[in-house]
């Protein structure tokens, strides 16, 4: 018997008891919708967290914390290590930074800002994706780059701090620096304690470029990037590496290797390369950290959560399968005379079994289809309604990009497979019973 | 064509352990040749229906052998007998045994559908046979919308659709009035003559028994008379 005819036969049979089939399909649909919606919470939260992590950080970035030494100590990264990193296949760039070991005070006109001061290898930064919003890259030793929010943090020198900043710690609009920055001369003031007295050195610099706005709204970048030569000038003044201040309370400060780096980040060519590079670095005793490490842990936890939710959801489908079993058993009982006639005229028991299995799986398929459509609707409603509920209940905005429920294509597929398996199982016994229908008893003929 | 050799069958009645054995057929042997119409007659309980059920494969024999078209059908499994049946045997039942939810067309088409014949071929063959039995205008009627005679014609059409060499009929006129009965018997004779189909008919109706080339009489599960009519 051809599939098409079997299917036609099944549909014809199902029409004989529409209400019973409808209720069974409905029960299956509810089970499937429950499975999908329940599991979608796991998928949604997972996606939100991954999005949050990957959104905050550059995904192909591997942070090198140092090289592992004996007794859990880490040594700083030096040029030798940098050369090795650059030699690794699929490494796009190695960004290395040295931080000035004191807050640099930058002044321009009547405005000033205390900020993090950094020396970096500009070509590597550019290769890693560093971009300017205005100006150009520095070419001379006294030229500097500043962060996008540098200007917004410039505050008037002659006004009290309590007056200048608002409750969020931002410079009030009326005190903001409104002048241009590019080409603006600035003075960098660095200090050192000499014989118990604070001595200050003023270095004249010019801003030539402003970095691109940070990707996230809540991020601020007010750093200043100075050249290596300026750092050497500062070191000559302070007599310490990276301009460290001699604190009277700490007469023996840690001496930093002048050729070591405080912050080293390796950038791979693509996200897929991160794990390989990260593993190679770990094998060579470098302490590393990347988004992939964090994602791996999160993925493990959420995979367990998702499996758990799918398992709980499957129970709902199993309950629905009792309905399918009942419907199919009733169908076999009711159709016994028809089965008997079919067997009498030469229907193979296998064909009869296939017809009943097809019917139960068709009920399961319809249920899964309707359940999936309903689940998408519920998921949409939950995502749309949840922020309103959170806002009403807690008087707070829910986290940005929070997706409470997410249904990836794989989820309805998993549901379909589970549903199909369960319906086949629940239809198997009635189908076997159908093949065992006795021709003569079914046709009510005398033996 | 059909060879029945030393066929015996008992019914076990009652609870297990305390069951009573009722012999239904005892050492029954006969042959039906190709193109013959053979009628089996006998009183109720003589074992004629059991004999037909055994030949049809609806029940499994306990002793003896049945050979149809040279094949030992008694050795076939249920599935293989089903395949054999659909290709070799057509059935006509007393109560027609049509599927009530199917139209006359669908009932007749059913054996071809089960065989996996293409839709186009099925349609052509079903319409031809409907025309042959004079029910073309009733093709979309459900069994409940047909008279007894018409239902029996649908039943015959369903038996003929696969061109079987043998048709087994169990009291084919049992549910028909005498006029329809005559029409049907005439039709059986025509089919036998034109298509050479072998008929094995079970009946207790003398008129039906008269159309056979031979009549086998059963009594208490044994053949008591083999009569030849030419």
UniProtKB/TrEMBL annotation, chain A:
Record's keyword annotation contains Transmembrane: yes
Keywords per UniProt: Cell membrane, Membrane, Transmembrane, Transmembrane helix
Entry keyword Mitochondrion: no
Boundaries of every ABC3 transporter permease C-terminal domain copy: 310-435
Membrane-protein topology: Multi-pass membrane protein
GO molecular function, one term: transmembrane transporter activity
InterPro entries membership: ABC3_permease_C, MacB_PCD, Macrolide_Exporter_MacB
GO CC annotation: plasma membrane
Main location class: membrane
Superkingdom classification of source: Bacteria
Protein localization: Cell membrane
Transmembrane segments: 21-45, 300-325, 362-382, 402-425
The MacB-like periplasmic core domain, residue ranges: 23-237
Annotated family: Belongs to the ABC-4 integral membrane protein family.
Name listed for the protein in its UniProt record: Metabolite permease
Automatic annotation (TrEMBL), chain B:
A Pfam family hit: ABC_tran
SUPFAM superfamilies documented for this protein: P-loop containing nucleoside triphosphate hydrolases
Limits of the ABC transporter domain: 8-230
Keywords assigned by UniProt, alphabetized: ATP-binding, Nucleotide-binding, Transport
GO molecular-function term, one example from the UniProt record: transmembrane transporter activity
Entry-linked InterPro entries: AAA+_ATPase (IPR003593), ABC_transporter-like_ATP-bd (IPR003439), ABC_transporter-like_CS (IPR017871), ABC_transpr_LolD-like (IPR015854), MacB-like_ATP-bd (IPR017911), P-loop_NTPase (IPR027417)
Record keyword tRNA processing present: no
Annotated Gene Ontology cellular component terms: membrane protein complex; plasma membrane
Entries under PANTHER family matching the protein: ABC TRANSPORTER ATP-BINDING PROTEIN YTRE, IMPORT ATP-BINDING PROTEIN
Similarity comment: Belongs to the ABC transporter superfamily.
Protein name: ABC transporter ATP-binding protein
Record organism: Peribacillus deserti
């Amino acid at each position: 018997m051809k599939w098409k005819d079997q299917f036609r036969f099944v549909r014809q049979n199902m029409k004989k008891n529409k209400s019973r089939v409808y209720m069974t399909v409905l029960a299956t649909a509810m089970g499937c919708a429950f499975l999908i919606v329940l599991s979608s919470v796991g998928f949604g939260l997972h996606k939100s967290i991954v999005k949050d992590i990957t959104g905050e950080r550059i995904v192909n970035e591997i942070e090198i914390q140092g090289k592992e030494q004996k007794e859990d100590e880490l040594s700083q990264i030096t040029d030798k290590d940098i050369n090795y990193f650059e030699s690794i296949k699929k490494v796009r760039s190695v960004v290395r930074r040295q931080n000035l070991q004191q807050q640099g005070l930058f002044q321009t006109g009547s405005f000033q800002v205390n900020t993090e001061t950094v020396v970096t290898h500009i070509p590597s930064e550019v290769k890693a994706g560093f971009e300017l919003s205005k100006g150009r890259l520095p070419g001379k030793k006294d030229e500097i780059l500043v962060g996008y929010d540098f200007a917004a943090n410039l505050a008037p020198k002659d006004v009290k701090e309590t007056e200048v900043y608002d409750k969020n710690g931002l410079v009030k609009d009326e005190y903001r620096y409104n002048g241009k920055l590019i080409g603006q001369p600035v003075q960098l003031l660095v200090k050192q304690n000499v014989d118990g007295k604070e001595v200050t050195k003023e270095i004249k610099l010019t801003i030539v470029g402003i970095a691109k706005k940070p990707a996230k709204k809540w991020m601020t970048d007010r750093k200043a990037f100075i050249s290596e030569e300026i750092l050497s000038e500062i070191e000559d003044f302070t007599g310490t590496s990276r301009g460290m201040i001699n604190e009277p309370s700490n007469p023996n400060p840690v001496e930093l290797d002048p050729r070591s780096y405080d912050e080293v980040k390796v950038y791979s060519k693509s996200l897929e390369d991160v794990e390989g590079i990260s593993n190679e670095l770990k094998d060579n005793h470098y302490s590393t950290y990347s988004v992939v490490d964090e994602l791996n842990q999160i993925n493990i936890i959420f995979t367990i959560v998702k499996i758990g939710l799918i398992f709980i959801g499957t129970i709902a489908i199993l309950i629905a399968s009792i309905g399918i079993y009942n419907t199919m058993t009733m169908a076999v009982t009711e159709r016994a005379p028809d089965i008997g006639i079919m067997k009498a005229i030469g229907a193979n028991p296998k064909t009869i079994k296939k017809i009943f299995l097809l019917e139960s799986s068709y009920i399961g398929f319809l249920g899964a289809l309707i359940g999936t459509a309903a689940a998408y609707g519920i998921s949409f409603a939950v995502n749309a309604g949840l922020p309103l509920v959170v806002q009403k209940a807690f008087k707070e905005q829910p986290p940005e990009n929070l997706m409470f429920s997410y249904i990836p294509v794989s989820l309805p597929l998993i549901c379909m497979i589970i549903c199909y398996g369960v319906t086949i199982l629940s239809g198997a016994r009635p189908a076997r019973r159908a093949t065992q229908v006795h021709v003569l008893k079914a046709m009510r003929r005398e033996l | 064509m059909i060879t029945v050799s030393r066929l015996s069958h008992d019914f076990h009645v009652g609870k297990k352990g305390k069951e009573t054995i009722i012999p239904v057929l005892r050492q029954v042997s006969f042959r039906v040749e190709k193109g013959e119409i053979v009628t089996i007659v006998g009183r109720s309980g003589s074992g004629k229906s059991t004999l037909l059920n055994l030949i049809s494969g609806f029940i499994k024999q306990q002793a003896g052998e049945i050979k149809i078209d040279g094949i030992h059908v008694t050795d076939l499994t249920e599935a293989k007998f089903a395949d054999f049946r659909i290709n070799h045997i057509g059935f006509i039942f007393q109560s027609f045994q049509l599927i009530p939810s199917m139209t006359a067309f669908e009932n007749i088409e059913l054996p071809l559908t089960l065989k996996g014949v293409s839709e186009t071929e099925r349609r052509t063959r079903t319409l031809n046979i409907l025309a042959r039995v004079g029910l073309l205008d009733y093709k979309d009627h459900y069994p409940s919308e047909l008279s007894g005679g018409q239902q029996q014609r649908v039943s015959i059409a369903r038996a003929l659709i696969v061109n079987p060499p043998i048709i087994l009929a169990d009291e084919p006129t049992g549910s028909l009035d005498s006029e329809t009965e005559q029409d049907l018997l005439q039709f059986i004779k025509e089919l036998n003559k034109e298509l050479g189909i072998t008929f094995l008919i079970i009946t207790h109706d003398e008129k039906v028994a008269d159309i056979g080339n031979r009549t086998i009489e059963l009594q208490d599960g044994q053949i008591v008379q083999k009569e030849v009519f030419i």
